[in-house]
Amino acid sequence: MKYRPARIIAGLSAMALIAAGCSLDAADSGNTVKVVVGYQSKTINTVTAGTLLRAKGFLEQRLARLTAAGGPKYQVEWQDYDTGAPITAQMVAEKIDIGSMGDYPLLINGSRTQASERSRTELVSVTGYQPKGSLNMVVVPPGSPIHELQELAGKKVSASVGSAGDGTLRQGLSRAGIDPKSGVRILNQQPQIGASALDSGQVQALSQFVAWPGLLVFQNKAQLLYDGAELNVPTFHGVVARRDYAKQHPEVLDAFLQAQLDATDFLHAKPLEAAESVAHDTGLPAEVVYLYNGPGGTTFDTPLKSQLIQAFKGDIPYLKSIGDFADLDVDKFVDDAPLRKAFSERGVDYAKAVANFGNPAPITGTDPTGNRPVTDPALAGEIWFDGQETTQPAADPTSLLHALKAARAQGRKVRAAYVPDAELGTRWFADKALWIHDGQTYLPFTTSAAAQRYLTAHPGSTQLSYDQAIAEVQP
């Protein structure tokens, strides 16, 4: 039986509200001000407003300073969810004050919460973004005969309706000439349920947000079919706050945004330590966390940049495609005044930060192969050697293969190696990439469709495996 999106999302909301029945009210209790934060521990592009932020205690530290300065006591309650839908349901019920989620769930959040002034939310910051959209991907089982998105026609695909992964799937199918409503059968499933369905053969593909695609590929349970970067539309995750709560306790929202900036600075300064921390608290492999949270991966930057807001406005038709949602005025939903204030308090130029769409934490350093400086973020990769507290940069994919070949000869163990896709720039595992040899150059691709496009356009180039590439590369 085909799903009914609006009914499903309403059902999820109702379930979340029932589950929240035993939660404490977010109102003040005596001299203690309570703030309830909803986050998604395994959605690792929200770590600076969730998992990492909680682990480092930055918010509690900021609030403690307010108390020490003569303010009231503050109590932080963290609530962890798998997707953004239940966070939105809790915000509608006025039981979560600040939450973080992906762009498509943010659309639903803004639409659902505006019915009441007490539940109405505002988008106050970004946690991380990807300029081309590679935060969402479609995977298929290893050895699947499906190599292009068009081949999903008539197949069953697992996705979480209302999630960023679902939005990317529908956009991708539409561009491929497939009606998302009738051309495929989309099963509305939580990410972990969908992963099991893919493994058991109940579905032929799974479309999800980070870190699920990378996790399943890392575990050899899936191979990448479609990279969301092919849409070439920015995707992002952000923070929403209930306006009523922020109006009553502006100092709490300010402390939260300052703490988010603290977490962002920490992630940039100590990326491996941050990845290990997130891995410890989520159970995700640190290598998978670092794929997205490491330099050259997700752009962790808080400003509400115009490119992201324009892309956000372009996603609005998605609301109507999955159910009966109230229209959302994005310009009224977005409010960067609190973040501007936080930047000003730190002596940082917000306008300058908004204007910069580049990644503030690219891969840098010196490539020991040839002693070359790493200067081009679009080509740079890195190797994480076992037992090392820092990674080794590579100026380009070919140089990375040289370093891996030398490491094998020396018996050094590699935890993970990362390279950017030659066509789309998506950061990916070097051993999961599809490699092409063209002249003296070795090029990695995330999907077989991308590799085939290159082979077709460059006669004489050849495809080879990761191990073959390492074996063949010459000094």
TrEMBL record:
Keyword entries, A-Z: Signal
InterPro entries reported in the protein's UniProt record: SsuA/THI5
The keyword ATP-binding belongs to this UniProt entry's keyword annotation: no
Gene3D superfamilies, A to Z: Periplasmic binding protein-like II (3.40.190.10)
One Pfam family, short name: NMT1
Domain SsuA/THI5-like: 124-274
Xref: SUPFAM superfamilies: NosL/MerB-like (SSF160387), Periplasmic binding protein-like II (SSF53850)
Leader sequence segment: 1-26
Lineage: superkingdom: Bacteria
Protein name: SsuA/THI5-like domain-containing protein
Upper classification of the organism: Bacteria, Bacillati, Actinomycetota, Actinomycetes, Mycobacteriales
